[in-house]
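ok posting inputs for the guanosine-5'-diphosphate job
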Amino acid sequence: MKIEASFILSAASASDLPRDGLAEIALVGRSNVGKSSVINALVRRRVARTSAAPGKTRLANVYRVARGGGAPLYLLDLPGYGYARAPKGSRSAGSPEAARRASQNEFEAIVRAVFARQPAGLLLVDARHPGLETDRAAWQWIREAAGEAAVVATKIDKLGRGERIRALRTFESVLETSVLPVSAVTGEGLEELWKLIDRLKTSG
Ligand code: GDP
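and the output
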């Protein structure tokens, strides 16, 4: 099936975001969860930059994608969360805490700008780390803020059979929703992810 994909821009604020009314899906996840890899695997080319230094990206990257002659949509790739936490007790240094707060504010501003548009939301979680508090918190606000939302577990190729069953079970019980396992390396789950995106797009 033919896939079209292009990088549109990196948005720092609401005014940078597209205004042509196409469906939007916001991708959310911790730094290093594999978000860029999933985007590239979905569109079968390297539109997203992987393994950028964690914390460098303070912007929402906007991609326009279409598959098989279907209506195009925007993937709004939000900055990864959970990277700039100064270790507890490092307050004495003063500036790391201030820097952390500044980057947290920036992160929240772009997240608010994107979710004000009521996109569909896709939370990416690392299959190896079920039940992280940051992921639970993210899932809670995505469910509240997004029109429609779903969860994808990345890097599923890294788990053996037993581990994978246990991990998915834990995710599903903690997040109280079904979780789609995918791998950017083996391609597992990508067809299902396209279908999920199509569903979110039409009901979002
Ligand atoms: P991002 O920060 O969320 O955009 O994460 P990246 O896409 O840059 O991926 C972070 C790291 O995880 C990189 O070293 C990737 O090669 C690796 N990675 C991403 N997806 C997969 C996957 O499906 N399987 C495996 N084994 N590694 C992955």
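notes: Residues 84-92 have pLDDT under 50 and may be disordered. The first strand starts at residue 3 and ends at 11.
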